[in-house]
Write a structure and sequence with these properties.
With about 150 residues, the chain is mostly helical. The chain is built from four helices and three strands, in the order αβββααα.
Length: about 150
């Protein structure tokens, strides 16, 4: 049996951001509402969804959890935010839920495949050099400039 490309290792913050970005782009192309993603949830739960006026927020716990579980929660969060999961909010995990309509099950498989591919990508190389000596406000401004 081939090894899982993502493995049982936890998903670091950069990997979480990479997966969230890939899923957001794919959900947008599919015409779905794209939730905001954050980690960890405010409550002691693996995944939470808050429905705010500005849009849904999916929060997923990363710590001490295998990457494939975190990825499955992100995918299920998108489906739940778009009211595509069955009532009761049952966590589907890696095993396909037989109660999902075929179109939703196919969408879930596509989202999972894309997310797992994004999680398996190596992160960007870390820049060598001395640590930054910027103040807190300057660091925030630098990050905002880099993101733009």
């Amino acid at each position: 049996m081939p090894a899982d490309p993502v493995g049982a290792a936890p998903l670091d913050a950069a990997g979480f951001a990479r997966v969230a970005g890939a899923l957001s782009a794919l959900a947008r192309r599919a015409g779905l509402a794209v939730p905001a993603f954050r980690s960890p949830p405010r409550r002691d739960a693996r995944r939470t969804i808050r429905r705010l006026q500005a849009g849904p927020v999916v929060a997923v716990r990363r710590g001490r959890r295998p990457a494939h579980e975190v990825v499955a929660d992100l995918v299920d969060g998108i489906l739940a935010a778009n009211d595509l999961l069955p009532p009761g909010g049952r966590r589907t995990g890696a095993v396909p839920d037989p109660s999902l309509p075929p179109a939703v099950a196919a969408l879930r498989r596509l989202l999972l495949a894309e997310a797992l591919a994004a999680a398996a990508e190596p992160g960007p190389p870390q820049a060598a050099g001395p640590p930054s000596r910027l103040t807190g406000a300057a660091r925030v401004a630098e990050r905002q400039t880099q993101a733009a």
